[in-house]
Specification:
Elements (H helix, E strand, L loop, with lengths): L1 E3 L16 E5 L2 H14 L3 E5 L12 E7 L8 H11 E12 L5 H18 L7 H7 L3 E8 L4 E7 L3 H4 L2
Parallel strand pairs: 1-2, 1-4, 2-3, 4-5
Antiparallel strand pairs: 5-7, 6-7
Bound molecules: S-adenosylmethionine (SAM).
Length: about 170
Amino acid sequence: MLEVAIGTGLNLAHYPDEVQLTGVEWSPAMLDIARDRARQLGRAVDLRQGDAQALDFPDACFDTVVCTFSLCAIPDDRQAVAEMARVLRPGGLLLLADHVEASPWYARVALALIEVVSIRVGGEHFRRRPIRHVRALGFTVEDHDRFKLGIVERLAARKTPRSAAGR
Ligand SMILES: C[S@@+](CC[C@H](N)C(=O)[O-])C[C@H]1O[C@@H](n2cnc3c(N)ncnc32)[C@H](O)[C@@H]1O
């Protein structure tokens, strides 16, 4: 399993012991914290510095790819999702959670105003919809919900199995 933009490793405690986990993260400082956390949890993880937009892995080498609250911060979210799709095996599972464009118009306006500053200051986007990229890549969205005015979105999507892709 691969976690993209793993940050400080906040999700580490939630993976079952049997999962063989690889984590990629752009920031060496965040990676150091993730390494400490993994040590404290007694969890073996292959943690690597790298760019979500150009993952240094061969095609179709992971069963599952996870990315939480990071597509809002990665400069090209479409390219990052395409890279997740590339390294995922056919039939593999993509799990995403992020803050996205709100449902009500007034919240969309507020987030647009926040973005004027947040993108410039911290590269943080508040009006993205990664699910559109996932669907455009032909994934089947198996589970999906939105809450907190639609701002938080979670999804589980399946990459087309090889047999179906060849039809
Ligand atoms: C808000 S944090 C979320 C961290 C973690 N996924 C979590 O849920 O706690 C966003 C992370 O994305 C990382 N990031 C931003 N751009 C990246 C890129 N191009 N490649 C890899 N990681 C990136 C940041 O360094 C940061 O650690």
